[in-house]
Specification:
By secondary structure, the chain is of the alpha/beta class. 36% of the residues lie in helices and 20% in strands. The strands form 3 sheets. Strands 10-11-16-15-14-17 form a 6-stranded antiparallel barrel. Strands 2-1-3-4-5 form a 5-stranded parallel sheet, with helices on both faces. A 4-stranded parallel sheet has the order 7-6-8-9.
């Protein structure tokens, strides 16, 4: 587990309405705890001994108990019908992500004193949550046996990590967006709405700090670590000293500027003046920090960095940020994709960047110069980027974005990176997402998304979708790759 993302500790509080036996909720809570610890890590959860019945003072007692236990997430467990006022007040006053789940009835032989009516109680709970404007995660079908509810709580963990992480995040930027990259700019009001702090700095501030690190005694140690990571791919050894100096600059900046926040991500400037002043490109260092769970986006892409952080919290692993870049040539599709994979040509595209993808996500890598920048600059000032095909496997492409008129939007689509040689440069892979062509037109273009998309290495669409809902993205503002049988609103119905 990375140190730059939270570990969720979930307090489980059982509730019981006073006209039901309290023992019903208490015993079901015990069964839930036993079911969870039999299958998952016991450190994930905390059993609150207070059973909330009707009293608001019991609510306060339970709230103080889970806070004292160090819980940063909450599960309100309806062992029976539950007290709608006290249980939703608990959710209102708990500062962290919360979930509501209810116990299913246990046996046809005990539907008299053993009937809990939590199925009904969940309706009242959800109604009261709306009255109090309290956001809570409610699973797809939130009523289950002890084992089923344990699984629901385990699915809540990555959602809780992301939601809690955002509330403790500082996003550090360096420089304004590059010219002609309006897409990477967006209003920051939604950052504050999400509970994220932002610190905006000048490139000159960063350059001053970099120069002060010129003789840092730690540089040889960082160079040695880079050499170990690159191995035979260390084709530009002459640039490692400056890259190590820059890495230490960023890490020290994080420690000095984190303030009261627990987690950090960075949106950095990487061109056009960066190369001529720093005398290298920062891509490799960005990839190394991202590989440690400290996402670094390029081109001052604030919402790209934010998206990467969310994916890191959910997956617990390094993610990346790529351009949704170029189409797959017809001859490549016909030779290497069509005979072997069940994708249409428009299901495929290439994701590319230059490169903030960590080396562990590449088939192989070499340190090279940045080809695009070297078209206008001397090669020696564009050294410092990895090149390599991204390793094949399952992926989730996604992004959280604020529009120019301050509307929060998101998209998520699951797919895969194909085991197809790209025959190109940079950090790049051949991606396949079902109905990508329609998704590209009716979500990415229609909704005005920028060219950067975050990539999590695995299928995390379910958790990402729930996080986006939880943090306030309207459901009709969450795009996904819909099948042909489900047309987009903007899609012409006449084929």
């Amino acid at each position: 587990m990375f140190t730059n993302i939270p570990k969720a500790k979930v307090g489980i509080v059982a509730v019981s309405r006073d006209c039901f036996p309290a023992s019903l909720a208490i015993n079901r809570r015990k069964a839930l705890i036993d079911a969870y610890t039999a299958k998952y890590d016991a450190d994930d959860i905390y059993e609150c001994p207070v059973c909330i019945i009707e009293s608001e003072t019991q609510m306060v007692e339970a709230l103080e108990d889970v806070k004292k236990a160090g819980c940063n997430a909450l599960v309100v467990y309806l062992g029976n019908f539950g007290p709608e006022i006290s249980e939703t007040l608990l959710a209102k006053h708990f500062e962290g992500p919360k979930m509501f789940v209810a116990a299913a009835e246990e046996s046809q032989g005990d539907l008299s004193d053993g009937r809990g009516d939590a199925y009904c109680g969940m309706l009242n709970a959800s109604y009261n949550l709306r009255l109090r404007n309290v956001r809570a995660y409610i699973p797809k079908y939130p009523v289950g046996t002890a084992a089923e509810c344990a699984d629901m709580i385990h699915e809540f963990l990555p959602i809780a990590r992301a939601v809690y992480g955002l509330s403790k995040l500082k996003l550090i930027t360096f420089g304004p967006r590059p010219n002609n990259f309006l897409a990477c700019n967006a209003p920051i009001q939604q950052l504050y709405n999400l509970g994220v702090e932002i610190e905006e700095n000048s490139e000159l501030d960063l350059f001053e700090s970099f120069n002060k690190h010129e003789d840092d005694a730690r540089i040889p140690e960082v160079i040695a670590d880079m050499e170990k990571e690159l191995g035979a791919g260390n084709k530009k050894p002459e640039v490692l000293k400056k890259l190590a100096q820059y890495e230490l600059t960023l890490l020290d900046w994080i420690e000095a500027h984190k303030g009261y926040r627990e987690y950090v991500c960075i949106a950095g400037k990487c061109w056009p003046a960066f190369q001529t002043q720093f005398k290298f490109v920062p891509c490799y260092v960005n990839s190394r920090l991202t590989g440690r769970g400290i996402p670094v986006s390029c081109e001052v892409d604030v919402y790209g960095a934010l998206s990467e952080f969310i994916g890191t919290c959910i997956s617990g692993e390094a993610v990346t940020l790529l351009d949704i870049n170029n189409s797959v040539p017809d001859d490549m599709y016909m030779e290497s994709i069509r005979p072997y994979f069940g994708y249409s040509h428009t299901d495929t595209f290439m994701g590319f960047h230059c490169i903030n993808t960590c080396s562990s996500r590449l088939v192989s890598c070499e340190m090279k110069y940045q080809k695009i920048m070297a078209r206008n600059l001397p090669i020696e000032v564009t050294n410092g980027t990895l090149e390599g095909d991204i390793a094949p496997g399952d992926i989730t492409f996604y992004r959280l974005q604020s529009t120019s008129d301050n509307i929060l939007r998101a998209y998520v689509a699951e797919g895969e990176i194909l085991p197809v040689a790209t025959r190109s440069f940079g950090g790049i892979g051949v991606f396949a997402i079902k109905e990508m062509g329609r998704f590209y037109r009716h979500v990415l273009i229609e909704k005005g998304y920028p060219h950067h998309g975050a990539v999590a290495f695995g299928h995390y669409g379910k958790a990402l979708f729930e996080v986006f809902k939880y943090i306030g993205v309207a459901q009709d503002e969450i795009g996904w790759n819909q099948p042909v049988s489900l047309p987009y609103k903007s899609e012409n119905p006449f084929r």
